[in-house]
Amino acid sequence: MSRESFWTADPAELLRVGEGFELADVDPQSHPGFDGGKAEAKAALAEGADILAELQEQLFAGSRMGGHKRRILLVLQAMDTGGKGGIVKHVMGAVDPQGVQLAAFKKPTEEELDHDFLWRISKETPAPGMIGVFDRSHYEDVLIGRVRELAPPAEIERRYDAINEFERGQVANGTTVIKVMLHISADEQKRRLEERLERPDKHWKFNPGDIDERLLAPAYRDAFQLVFERTATADAPWFVVPADHKWYARLAVQHLLIDALEAMELSWPAADFDVAEQQARLAAS
Amino acid sequence: MSRESFWTADPAELLRVGEGFELADVDPQSHPGFDGGKAEAKAALAEGADILAELQEQLFAGSRMGGHKRRILLVLQAMDTGGKGGIVKHVMGAVDPQGVQLAAFKKPTEEELDHDFLWRISKETPAPGMIGVFDRSHYEDVLIGRVRELAPPAEIERRYDAINEFERGQVANGTTVIKVMLHISADEQKRRLEERLERPDKHWKFNPGDIDERLLAPAYRDAFQLVFERTATADAPWFVVPADHKWYARLAVQHLLIDALEAMELSWPAADFDVAEQQARLAAS
């Protein structure tokens, strides 16, 4: 059975945030479009890894020697334990590290706070030929920024438009922007936090502040809903990925990347030198 | 058979550049200390990947929450086609991308040339908990720098001491520095360049300048020999890895990394919070 045979529909279509989208309608336990379970997903992920790796190499190769300026920016957002790290490790980890530009955005430093919120973001946008991955992003500034009132309301409001403008600029410069929210249920989050507390080798991943954030989950869901309403554009779409099943979330994000790369219709770049001439030079060397 | 059973001696000992080392004495086709062939090496590499991945996670974990400042800097140098990219892809690719900080140094830009040669290097040194990988490095400034006379002789001379001082600073700040030269024969290089010219999907990796560099191989070998004499220090040792067999080179570098991490005697960091208290908070949430 090939990877495609388990997909009954294109997840990009099923998961894209469209008109009238309501986060509350998404079941975090569902696995839209994938007609299989954990074992099938594991096999499909391995198969997809090879496809993704070759497409990534073509993307990279085509950008060399003054080639195209295409690139991908994958934005990952989620509540704590949502599985961002697992996407980076298991989906991006299958790709040549030389083609991946990863940026993890933590609590802003004093220097970062002294600049516009997009200052630190702009610096990390991917170079041509790269797959950029944002583990958290400028969306924190309208998520935790809103929930915890880290900026005045007018400033928060301003940011949605600034984000759309910023992303439009990325797209205009050859970037395919893919924004993903990994959506987990309150119960699943509890289980994952419990595991971190039970296992000494996971303690370092736990922070008491995670529970403070968890108590604010309803406010975060409202803030996410607003993000979707204000920033889900045709150019830079949002995808809400049900993520209680890690195997589904990883497979779905991998599929989104493959889709985006296939849409570029990449091919190996032609030589910008005379092959026979170089073969003769090499033979004589 | 376990991974270790194929190693008859520690490659770190066999490959380290010591007193009286002569590059000319190293056989690029050899596989010191490894009593197996390609198939055994592939199995050993897969086994080593799991070990390396866990050690890397401990290194990373231990650096969080105001922990230790330890980190690794792996410097990779080689002639064209030497296999640096393969090390990054197949050795580092098995590690969580979140724990790897990769920097590829190309021909310096005008801005970089306007600064001391270590300016662009310093900026890319790894953060605590990370494995930093330099694909080419400050050594280019005493390799191509010397061979192509890109700087006055006195400036080239000055750089060896500057490099030693720079690396001493890294070590003093908790970095384990591992410097690797992948050593391939002229014949093997010819085969690899031929392959790049034969396969259209490899043309993008070929540059006519590669043949110009190839013609200068004797001068580069002299420049490498000088690098070893001037910068192989106890704190920041050089390892010359025979690399005609890609399987050996990858396995040897993986082993050097595992050795370095095991020498740190890492363990999972203790919680800096009261576990039972947090479990109670979580249960109530």
UniProtKB/TrEMBL annotation, chains A, B:
Keyword terms, alphabetized: Kinase, Transferase
Organism: Agromyces lapidis
Keyword hit for Calcium: no
Keyword Kinase: yes
One MF term in the entry's GO annotations: kinase activity
Residue ranges the record marks as coiled coil: none
Residue span, Polyphosphate kinase-2-related domain: 41-265
Pfam families named among the record's database cross-references: PPK2 (PF03976)
Name of this chain's protein: PPK2 family polyphosphate kinase
InterPro entries: P-loop_NTPase (IPR027417), PPK2-rel_1 (IPR022300), PPK2-related (IPR022488)
